Amino acid sequence: MIYILIASFIGLLSFVIGALAIQSKKLSVAVIATGVVSLFSSILFLLMAAPDVAMTEASIGSGLTTLIYFYVLNKIKKHHA
Amino acid sequence: MLRNLLISLLLLSFVYIFYNLYVGFTPKTELDGIAAHYADKGAAEIGAANLVTAVVVTYRGFDTLGEVTILFLTASIIGFFLKLTEADENKVIIHRGTSELLATSSNLLVPIIILFGIYVFMNGHLTPGGGFQGGAIIASAIALAILANPNMHINHQIILWVESISGVVFVLMGVLGILLAGGFLDNRILPQGQFGTLLSAGAIPIIYSFIGLKVGAEISNILEKYQKSQKES
Amino acid sequence: MEFFELGKISLLIGFGLIVLGFWGILSQKNIIKIILSFTIMETGVNILIVSLGYVKGKTAPIIDSAVEQGANHSVLGQVVDPVPQALVLTAIVIGFGTTALLLAYAMKLFKAKRTLQINNFNDLKW
Hints:
The complex is a heterotrimer of chains A (81), B (233) and C (126).
Chain A: H1 2-23, H2 27-47, H3 51-80
Chain B: H1 2-24, H2 33-46, H3 51-59, H4 61-81, H5 86-89, H6 100-122, H7 131-148, H8 156-180, H9 204-229
Chain C: H1 6-27, H2 31-52, H3 82-113
């Protein structure tokens, strides 16, 4: 029962944060929000008895992908400033 | 206006399809078909305690080979696209200076994180984790080192050799499976050993370790390319 | 039809994230935003696939002392489906590769035109 509550909560939060990521005017906010959606999905994988997938999602999906986005953002910002 | 209308029409049709799929979906209560076979006989056939590893490395090993190939292709294409000119290559990145905390902790943590990555992929057949996760952990250690010292020089020869040798060993183990056991990437070319110990499950620890090294080298290569691209003006 | 079940709720979250990502791809003008929507959609697809393999009340497909074992370490009827998990495992790594490739293209496009608004890339329009 507690799993279902956590899963519904995570689902609602990830919808809100995903919509924020798409609608936000600031790109850095959008990138961080996408990383947070990935992190929430990693918790969901853990609840669904998939620890392997949770590990991969947490390290690659929300860690390294966000890092690469910030490399690109840094490159773009240099020219706008 | 027309554009918004079309977008909402498309999204609504998607929602309609998904709603029908959702209503018609009944969750499984029992495993069926091939999954039941894996759960029933997987441990006896493969000898790996982690059934996901058994599926990734042996039952669906061919998919993993294709996946590693795709990652290699992506890394090469990114290297081709982000190639710097000779003048840019010799530039030094001007940065604000790394904080004392980051510099010290990276010196301390990078070897430990790499060691943890090696632990994760060597125990891939016993505990959650494996080559992909271990490779990602190694790559994150490299990322920490690059963040602490943006002008760090990474030896390309090492990455190249680690990557190529791992790929060749992976394919060779698969071919050995044809010659000595049942088929391509069969893990029974080595003795199965005691169930649940490190040296068990035949060739799985070796194959998964090389997958881990290959994935780690490729992701580190991609990260390093992005870091280098910051030099370009 | 039971609504409160982890498998069904996860399926719903997966569908929702796919629709959200699709909406972002269609409605946004900034190339980085489009790639971000792509990442969100991919997360949704992964959740969807894993939730298809979930069996209610079963544990992770790892044979250790936490699982009741039959003869020859058989765990039939104790674990969830390992196949979708293995597929998603590779899909996440490939997703990282494709995202990195898309971002490399985006950087190249930015270098060529000094802008990321997709309306400005109209060279093929005539």
